[in-house]
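Bench notes, afternoon.
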Amino acid sequence: MAKLILSMDGLVLKEFTLSKERTTIGRKAHNDIQIDNLAVSGEHAVVVTILSDSFLEDLGSTNGTLVNGQTVKKHFLQNNDVIELGKYKLKFVSDGPVQTKAADFEKTMILRPGALRPQPPAPTPAPAPAAPGAVKPAAAPGAAPVAPPAAPAPAPRVAPPVAPQRAGVLQLLSGSNAGRQLDLTKPLTTLGKPGVQVAVITRRPQGFFITHVEGANFPIVNGKTLDSQAHALGDHDVIEIAGVKMEFFFKT
């Protein structure tokens, strides 16, 4: 699991595990990572962690946020990245797979070795039963008795097939692209307008979930405003992001 290591002047102060989807950083006490220093804004930045990916967003701080010496507004975090807030540094450490940055944070699924189970061996066919009334040939005088044929090995137990995950689709209901459909085939799909409102839909074994990422306004699902936690999507849910309405449904 990824973590942030807080330090100042080379001295490690504390470690924070990124176990939440949103980890806030700032001077005020309600932040997950509180840095009590005037160079740090009350609500300075946030780290959003989706699946094995984490990205940093500056929340309009007064003095800005630096990553590896460069000022950033939004940054996809890679292993050993160093976040700078005044005199304090937060080193991002991830023990997950090597990450590849994408412009829209969408990832491609990777088939890992060992994910496929080997095909079970074919069961040994049982010998044909003797015909009714058949006479066994007599053994020759003085010959050793013939052992009966060994019983066939039991057929290996084959696990029942796992039902494939249902495919999800988004259909735009408003805006210039109304009527268009988007197949949710990737583990992570980014929606909205950068700088205004951004959310992501993640494809997990349990289903599809929507999570707020950026902006003062949170996504609306079926007329209800969501909070910062991931929300499971149901069939024919109506989502509103950055003024655009869309319908989520499962492909039949």
